[in-house]
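Consider this record:
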Amino acid sequence: MKRILVLLLAFGISPAGAQTSPLDGDWTGKSDGGSCSTPLDFALNIEAGLVDGTATDPTAHGPVPNLKKSAPPPPRPGLWQIYGAASASTFTLRALASVQGTERRETKFAASVQGGVLMLAESGGCGRKASLSRK
């Protein structure tokens, strides 16, 4: 919210003059686990059609090291940043995982509005599906 306000003021646009979208507001929901069996908790904010939010994996934690065996596998990403533009009733969102090192994980979500519910479907990756409701 603060980032958007700063951008609007930098371009000389008053916040009152910003166009609103019928999707504006805070959206929350939980996905199914998809093929990875890892559900995500979504918290999105849409303001003037700009989407910003996060998805968290409540089960993600670092692996427990076993020093007698090989090194543990890397931890799963527990936090995803979600961003995009809601320009119509169907749009695409991008998600970027917070991981360490050079490993970069990203995915896309196809978003559509069905009634008062925002439906997300992950393309590729785990194939998660989520339904988000407005807070």
Residues 2-10 form the longest helix (9 residues).
